């Protein structure tokens, strides 16, 4: 550059300066998912102005500008809820997982209860059939000896069987 005349040096410096400002043309914005995007091209048109953090000709930070929350309050808009933190999302996931496990346990217990009820109803129906056919029925006494049921015992069993069948569907 020593050999170039002074006006030519100034023109060359001006050209380099103009090219370098174009190379610094960077855009920084927050997309709809909340992720910062960096590009040499402008953001899509659907990105609101408040989400554009840096653009050529736009100052990166204006100390005199009101905070975004104050701007929303001034405009009468409700404050936007901040996205949940990782710990909040993790707590929410753990809560949903515990609720699902509790629901599965409750469902399993309900299934067992219904199976036991079904088995009891089937036993009651079998007892009722045996009583209706007049079959000889036996029971065990306190010593573990088999004893044939008398009429009073059969009547008591018939009464209990009718009550059990009343609860069956």
UniProtKB/TrEMBL annotation:
Its protein name is DUF4124 domain-containing protein
Q: What is the lineage of its organism?
A: Bacteria, Pseudomonadati, Pseudomonadota, Betaproteobacteria, Burkholderiales
* The species this protein was found in: Rugamonas apoptosis
> Which stretches does the entry tag as region Disordered?
37-145
Question: For this UniProt entry, which residues form the secretion signal?
Answer: 1-25
**Which branch of life, at top level?**
Bacteria
Comp. bias regions, Basic and acidic residues:
89-99, 107-116, 130-145
Biased composition, Polar residues: where in the chain?
117-129
Keywords (alphabetical) are: Signal
